[in-house]
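Sequence, please.
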């Protein structure tokens, strides 16, 4: 297939959009075969299967690299409580928060969880998302953690979207282990991880390193188990406080550290040295009405790649729009339109350990978006507006 008469944002470098004003793009066997100026199309890429893009913009397809999209129930009541002054931490310590979603998720069937998750997946597909990461973590027992991961895998069989799974057994301490986080890690979390890995359900291992969840020593034991299974790690770190999660993630060569509102310049330096991505989640910052933003300038100064994701979940970020997330990254975190587009393409792929997508270059997967737009900055500029014209997934329009 050959696409002509297009503006093409290659994103081949991190310092500009790599925009070709009058471009063409050839695809073969699901990959990009050639991209360049329309006047330079090689003869061997000219084909009858040519599509005129009528001046539209082409970018890499979007990637949502941090979601909790499989869950039971909702937490609209907690949203109401926060508006009357209750904090996220107060609600969690009173038995709400993650633990309340655990009860609903344990009670739900796989079919019900899948049907509910697909409503959110469909919204993402409609905005040009080609790949999502999906975490467990609302089961906190062996059977429900595996149930969630099976549902996550099933999404790709029901919709034209790729899924990467992360085991998040170290998300919270369940009620039956209240006050016994170490026992929960040893008795439930690590055995569930091994069982999930045995069923081929896990692509990476995550954890929540926070005062209301697990400390660095407890997460370290989970990460040791992950390494013994040959699985990469990532971490929720420094969202509500700084207890050393970012440096722990860096010590284990994590693919990413996520949230990072309370991260420091030293944390940024550690991420750079480890080759880890900083995943920023403005939906949670917005929903929880936080006031301390992540240290974006420190990440810039140290050359840490920044990804951006919805963090779609029922409590702290009930957000299923990556386009709105991009706008939030600009307005709340003062990121640039280039940074948020890189953050939902090139750097999002890097945060998932993928090097074959996220930019438009020969040899990359032909996962693309065609937009009714003249310039890439428009994708972050509008609010509540979807300019998607078409998705191209694996070279299929």
């Amino acid at each position: 297939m050959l696409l002509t008469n297009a503006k093409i944002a290659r994103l081949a470098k991190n310092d500009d959009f790599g925009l070709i004003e009058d471009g063409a793009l050839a695809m073969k066997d699901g990959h990009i075969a050639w991209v360049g100026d329309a006047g330079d199309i090689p003869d061997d890429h000219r084909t009858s299967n040519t599509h005129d893009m009528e001046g539209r913009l082409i970018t890499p397809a979007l990637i949502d690299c941090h979601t909790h999209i499989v869950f039971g129930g909702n937490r609209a009541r907690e949203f109401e409580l926060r508006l009357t002054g209750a904090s996220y931490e107060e609600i969690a310590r009173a038995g709400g928060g993650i633990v309340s979603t655990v009860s609903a998720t344990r009670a739900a069937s796989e079919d019900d969880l899948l049907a509910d998750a697909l409503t959110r997946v469909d919204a993402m597909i409609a905005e040009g998302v080609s790949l999502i990461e999906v975490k467990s973590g609302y089961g906190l027992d062996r059977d429900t953690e595996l149930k969630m991961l099976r549902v996550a895998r099933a999404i790709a069989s029901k919709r034209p979207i790729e899924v990467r799974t992360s085991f998040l057994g170290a998300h919270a301490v369940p009620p039956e282990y209240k006050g016994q986080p170490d026992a929960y890690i040893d008795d439930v979390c690590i055995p569930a991880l091994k069982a999930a890995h045995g069923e081929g359900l896990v692509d990476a291992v995550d954890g929540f390193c926070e005062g209301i969840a697990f400390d660095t020593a407890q997460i370290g034991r989970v990460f040791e188990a992950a390494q013994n299974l040959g699985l990469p790690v990532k971490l929720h770190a420094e969202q509500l406080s700084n207890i050393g999660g970012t440096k722990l993630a860096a010590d284990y060569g994590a693919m990413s550290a996520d949230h990072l509102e309370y991260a420091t310049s030293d944390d940024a330096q550690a991420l750079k040295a480890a080759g880890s991505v900083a995943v920023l989640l403005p939906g949670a910052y917005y929903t929880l009405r936080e006031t301390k933003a992540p240290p974006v300038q420190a990440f810039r100064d140290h050359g840490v790649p920044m990804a951006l994701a919805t963090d779609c979940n029922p409590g702290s970020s009930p957000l299923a729009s990556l386009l709105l997330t991009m706008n939030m990254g600009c307005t709340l975190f003062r990121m640039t339109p280039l940074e948020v587009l890189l953050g939902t393409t090139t750097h999002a792929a890097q945060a998932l350990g993928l090097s074959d997508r996220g930019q438009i270059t020969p040899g990359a997967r032909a996962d693309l978006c065609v937009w009714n737009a003249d310039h890439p900055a428009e994708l972050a500029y509008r609010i509540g507006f979807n300019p998607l014209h078409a998705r191209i997934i694996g070279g299929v329009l």
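The chain has a mean pLDDT of 96.
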